[in-house]
């Protein structure tokens, strides 16, 4: 590609990029050259992959590949339209019915991504007269959906149920609907949201309760049913959001709840109304993934065995793997807190050079001073791979002065 001089109209973007470079937090995309596996090749280099959301190894499961090929041959590569015009295929309805049964709810709607599921739902079910009471560390898709709704946004301190109640009590006599919303598992710290306590609080004050279970789906609860099942709060959570892009191994998001909620989203959720539906291969893959969750619970058992071992070893050698209100992560998401953004990104690059893919996360994704290497364990990592990664992490951290 021919390099041209930057146009002055976009000079402010170049200035931001130059600032990132000066701070050491600028990054470039690493390119995966084979399957999303525990050991794979990025940028031509073989690495132990600790950066993937492929919790249960389903992204390359032979059965999922088989059904994807079969669905493509039977139904083509695309649906050709949005769901409300001509793009609702029988296989889309089968997927929604499968998820609803799995989550023990009346109905489900599938979105193009977990991000659009959150943003589209929050922005459509509330308006400017309403109130959103949101955990301060909720995912960006929740934040964007709240802004798009034009509702009044109230933020409570992370996992602080008492603070949430203070806000609900203040709003008790205000007109408008109230929505309490939390992540089931927080994506940067790996801690579990107090879904049980918040759901009871929402019920006490007549608020809608919503949970984003993107990182809890396939990880928490019976056969990976998520945080609502983990806390045994069935019937207490009005809106459950999940993803098909992480533990399920494919692509998309979904919302579960009552029939009226889902029918309403069919009519009002803008990402659903204005985006082409999933290719049939993706829908078929997701259906088979839920079958595997039911049939192979040992995958989740391996995930947690690997998680407990790896995190215990990190703590033993002195790494800080805690979050804001949690002394240590509670899930396979493993934040290794470094602090300085530039140092964090340098650490990530050094690990890659030594054969470990572990992503550096800096501001604005996390607060200033809380930059970290975020790692995720999977069910498919072997102990030998984990041991090699642990040795590399310790050796490089000591060389860089991150560990003494």
CA(first)-CA(last) distance: 46 Å
> What sequence of helices (H) and strands (E) makes up the elements?
HEEHHEHEHEHEHEHEEHHHHEHEEEH
The amount of beta strand, in percent, is 15-25%
Lateral arrangement of strands in the main beta sheet? 3-9-8-7-6-4-5
Overall 3D form: globular
CATH top level of the largest domain? Alpha Beta
Average pLDDT level: 95
How many DSSP E strands?
Answer: 13
Low-confidence stretches: none
- Within CATH, the superfamily of the largest domain carries the name Type I PLP-dependent aspartate aminotransferase-like (Major domain)
Structural class: alpha/beta
The CATH topology of the largest domain is given as Aspartate Aminotransferase, domain 2
**Cα-atom radius of gyration:** 22 Å
Instruction: Tell me the major beta sheet.
Output: 7 strands, mixed
- Counted by DSSP, the helix tally is 14
Write a short abstract of this structure:
The chain is 42% helix and 16% strand. The chain has 404 residues and is an alpha/beta fold.
Task: Describe the model.
The chain has helices at 11-23, 62-75, 90-103, 114-125, 140-149, 161-171, 195-204, 227-230, 259-268, 270-274, 280-295, 298-317, 341-353, 383-399; strands at 39-42, 45-49, 107-111, 131-135, 152-156, 178-183, 208-212, 239-243, 253-257, 333-339, 356-357, 359-361, 371-376. The chain has 404 residues and is of the alpha/beta class. It has two domains: 23-52 and 297-399, Aspartate Aminotransferase, domain 1 (Alpha-Beta Complex), CATH 3.90.1150; 61-295, 3-Layer(aba) Sandwich (Aspartate Aminotransferase, domain 2), CATH 3.40.640.10. It has a seven-stranded mixed sheet, sandwiched between helices. A three-stranded mixed sheet has the order 1-2-11. Helix 3 (90-103) packs parallel to helix 11 and helix 6 (161-171) packs parallel to helix 7 (195-204). It is globular, with a radius of gyration of 22 Å.
């Amino acid at each position: 590609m021919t390099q041209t001089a930057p146009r002055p109209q976009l000079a402010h973007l170049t200035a931001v990029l130059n600032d990132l470079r000066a701070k050491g937090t600028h990054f470039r995309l690493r390119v995966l050259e084979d399957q999303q596996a525990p050991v794979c090749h990025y940028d031509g280099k073989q690495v132990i992959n600790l950066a993937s959301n492929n919790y249960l190894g389903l992204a390359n499961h032979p059965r999922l590949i088989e059904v994807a090929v079969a669905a493509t041959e039977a139904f083509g590569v695309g649906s050709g339209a949005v769901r409300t015009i001509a793009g609702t295929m029988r296989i889309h309805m089968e997927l929604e019915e499968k998820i609803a049964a799995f989550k023990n709810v009346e109905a489900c709607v599938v979105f193009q991504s977990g991000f659009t599921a959150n943003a589209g739902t929050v922005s459509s079910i509330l308006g400017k007269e309403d109130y959103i009471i949101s955990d301060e560390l909720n995912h960006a898709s929740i934040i964007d959906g709240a802004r798009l709704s034009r509702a009044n946004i109230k933020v409570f301190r992370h996992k602080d149920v008492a603070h949430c109640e203070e806000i609900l009590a203040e709003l008790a006599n205000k007109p408008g609907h109230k929505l309490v919303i939390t992540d089931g598992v927080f994506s940067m710290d790996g801690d579990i949201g107090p879904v049980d306590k918040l759901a009871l609080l929402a019920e006490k004050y007549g608020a809608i309760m919503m949970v984003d279970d993107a990182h809890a789906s396939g990880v928490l609860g019976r056969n990976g049913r998520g945080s609502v099942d983990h806390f045994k709060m069935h019937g207490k959570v009005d809106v459950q959001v999940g993803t098909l892009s992480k533990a399920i191994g494919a692509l998309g998001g979904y919302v579960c709840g009552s029939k009226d909620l889902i029918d309403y989203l069919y009519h009002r959720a803008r990402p659903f109304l204005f985006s082409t539906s999933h290719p049939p291969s993706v829908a078929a893959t997701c259906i088979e993934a839920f079958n595997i969750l039911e049939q192979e619970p040992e995958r989740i058992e391996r995930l947690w065995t690997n998680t407990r071992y790896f995190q215990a070893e990190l703590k033993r050698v002195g790494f800080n793997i805690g979050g804001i209100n949690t002394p240590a992560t509670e899930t396979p998401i493993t934040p290794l807190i470094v602090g300085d953004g530039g140092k964090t990104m340098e650490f990530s690059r050094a690990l890659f050079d030594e054969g470990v893919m572990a992503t550096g996360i800096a501001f604005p994704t996390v607060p200033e001073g809380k930059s970290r290497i975020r790692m995720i364990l999977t069910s498919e990592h072997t102990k030998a791979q984990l041991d090699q990664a642990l040795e590399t992490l310790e050796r490089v951290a000591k060389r860089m002065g991150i560990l003494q």
